[in-house]
Write a structure and sequence with these properties.
The chain is α/β, with parallel strands linked by helices. The protein contains 17 helices and 16 strands. The structure holds 2-acetamido-2-deoxy-beta-D-glucopyranose (2 copies). Pfam families: Thioredoxin (PF00085), Thioredoxin_6 (PF13848).
C-alpha cells in the first residue's frame, strides 16, 4: 500500500468507526435514572482487560448501525463494568462480555454465541411482543419456514394463555412464542380440544397435555429443541434445562473427515428412526471438539467420537467398543439408560475439585504464554491467599462443620465456572 492510499484508508476507517460509534452510546452509572421508561436497550458490559470484549467491539458497532438503519426501537449501549460498578451490579454482571437487554423494567440475559446474527435475532425477539400473533395461514407458513421449532398457543383468551404468557416472559431470551386460532392452522393438524399449546418441530408436532406433561415451563424446556441439530457450547448448556441426556457426534472444528460425516449421519438416523423410543430420554446432535467439551470431560475429546452427556450432574459416557453401525449406537444408548455403561465425570466432591483445578489451568496457561508476569500474579495471588487461609484453619481447627460449607460453595460455583470457559469462546 502506498503512503497516500494508506492514509486514505485510515481516514476512511476512522470515519467508519466514528459513524459506527455514533450508534453505540457509552453508558455510566446514571443510566437507570436518566433513561426513558419506554426505552429498549441492548447493552454490552465489558472490562478493559477482556480480550473477548475487544473482539466483540466491531460486531457491536455493526449491530448499532444496522439496528438503526432497520428502524429498530432498540438503542445500543456499552459500558465499562469495572468503572460503572453500580450499573453492573444492577444487571448482576458476572462474566465479560455480558450482553443484556432492558425492556420496561425487565432485564434479559443473552444466552447465545457472540455473533452478529445471534445478537440481532435476540434484540428483535425481545423488542417485539412476548407472544406474536399469527393471524393468517400465510403468516403462519412464513413463520414455519423461518423457525425450526415453533411454540404456538391456539385458541381464545384463557387461563392457559395467561400461563403461556408467563412462560414466554421467562423463556423469550431463548425462543419465540406465537399464538393463533384454529382456522389458521394447517388442516393436517388434528386437535381434540381448545385452547391448546403445540410445538411444531422436526416436520411434525406435539400437543401439551397438562395431566401427563405436568408443569408447562418444564414441558416447553423439554420440547423447545429440535430432535437433532448442530450444537454449540451455548446450546449444550441450555439443553441442561431439558433434563434429557444429549448424544453427541464429536467432529472436527472445520473440515469434517469422512469418518466424522459418517458418525454425524449415524446420530441423525438414530434420532429420526428411533424417535419414539429415545426422544423421551435423549436430545441428539453433533458438536465440534474444543475448550468447552474438553472442560466438561476434563481431558482431550477426539474427533470423531461419540459422547453422551448428563448436564444435570456433569456426567458423561463413552462407548466401550467401536461404534460403526446403528445397532452399536443403539446398544450404547441402552447401556447408558440401564447403567451397564459406567458414568464418568459427575459432580461429586473430588470431581468438582478436579474441575476447578482443570479450569484454573486452562485459564492460566494461555495467560502465562502471553504475559508471564500477569500470569504469575494471577496464579500467585490466590495461592498466597489460600496458603494464608490454610494457615489460619490449621491454627484454629476446632470444628469440622466448615467442610460442609466449603462443599456447598464449590457446588454453587461449578456451573458458572464452566460457563466462564464457554463465555470466553466468543467466536
Ligand atoms: C395455570 O398455572 C397454574 C399455576 O401453575 C395451575 O394451577 C393451573 O392449572 C394452570 N392453568 C391451566 C389452564 O393450565
Ligand atoms: C442425570 O443426572 C441426574 C441428576 O443427578 C439424575 O437424576 C439422572 O438420573 C441422570 N440421568 C441418567 C440417565 O443417568
Amino acid at each position: 500500500m502506498s503512503g497516500r492510499s494508506a492514509c486514505l484508508f485510515s481516514v476512511l476507517l476512522s470515519l467508519l468507526l466514528l459513524q459506527g460509534s455514533a450508534f453505540v452510546e457509552e453508558l455510566d452509572d446514571s443510566f437507570m435514572d436518566t433513561k426513558g421508561s419506554d426505552e429498549i436497550w441492548l447493552i454490552e458490559f465489558y472490562a478493559p482487560w477482556c480480550a473477548f470484549c475487544k473482539q466483540l467491539d466491531p460486531v457491536w458497532h455493526q449491530i448499532g448501525s444496522e439496528l438503526r438503519s432497520l428502524g429498530s426501537m432498540v438503542q445500543v449501549g456499552k459500558t465499562d463494568a469495572t468503572v460503572n460498578t453500580g450499573l453492573a451490579k444492577e444487571f448482576r454482571v458476572r462474566t465479560y462480555p455480558a450482553i443484556l437487554m432492558l425492556k420496561k423494567d425487565t432485564k434479559y440475559n443473552y444466552p447465545g454465541p457472540r455473533t452478529k446474527e445471534g445478537i440481532m435475532d435476540f434484540a428483535s425477539r425481545i423488542e417485539g411482543p412476548l407472544v406474536r400473533s399469527l393471524s393468517s395461514p400465510q403468516l403462519f407458513q412464513h413463520a414455519m419456514s423461518h423457525h425450526n421449532v415453533m411454540i404456538v398457543y391456539v385458541g381464545a383468551t384463557s387461563e392457559l394463555k395467561g400461563n403461556f404468557t408467563s412462560v414466554a416472559e421467562e423463556l423469550i431470551a431463548h425462543t419465540y412464542f406465537f399464538s393463533t386460532t384454529r382456522n389458521v392452522l394447517p388442516k393436517s393438524v388434528s386437535l381434540d380440544y381448545l385452547p391448546a399449546i403445540i410445538v411444531f418441530k422436526d416436520g411434525t408436532y406435539v400437543i401439551y397435555d397438562e395431566e401427563s406433561d405436568g408443569d408447562l415451563k418444564a414441558w416447553i424446556n423439554r420440547e423447545r429443541f429440535p430432535n437433532f441439530q448442530h450444537i454449540d457450547s451455548y446450546t449444550l448448556y441450555a439443553m441442561g434445562e431439558s433434563g434429557k441426556l444429549v448424544l453427541l457426534a464429536m467432529v472436527e472444528e472445520r473440515y469434517l473427515s469422512d469418518k466424522s460425516l459418517r458418525y454425524k449421519h449415524l446420530v441423525e438416523r438414530v434420532a429420526e428412526e428411533h424417535k419414539e423410543t429415545y426422544s423421551r430420554f435423549f436430545l441428539f446432535g453433533f458438536m465440534a471438539v474444543g475448550d468447552y467439551i474438553n472442560g466438561f470431560v476434563m481431558g482431550e475429546v477426539t474427533a470423531p467420537s461419540f459422547l453422551v452427556v448428563n448436564l444435570s450432574n456433569d456426567g458423561y459416557y463413552q462407548p466401550v467398543g467401536p461404534v460403526e453401525t446403528e445397532r452399536h449406537l443403539l446398544d450404547f444408548l441402552d447401556g447408558v439408560l440401564d447403567s451397564t455403561i459406567e458414568m464418568k465425570g459427575g459432580n461429586g466432591f473430588s470431581q468438582r475439585v478436579q474441575r476447578i483445578i482443570y479450569e484454573a489451568k486452562a485459564t492460566l496457561i494461555p495467560v502465562f504464554r502471553e504475559a508471564p508476569l500477569i500470569g504469575c500474579f494471577l496464579a500467585g495471588f490466590p495461592l498466597a491467599i489460600g496458603a494464608f487461609f490454610c494457615f489460619l484453619c490449621c491454627r484454629n481447627r476446632t470444628t469440622t462443620d466448615d467442610e460442609d460449607e466449603d462443599t456447598a460453595a464449590l457446588s454453587a460455583t461449578s456451573v458458572p465456572q464452566r460457563k466462564k470457559i464457554k463465555d470466553k469462546k466468543s467466536d
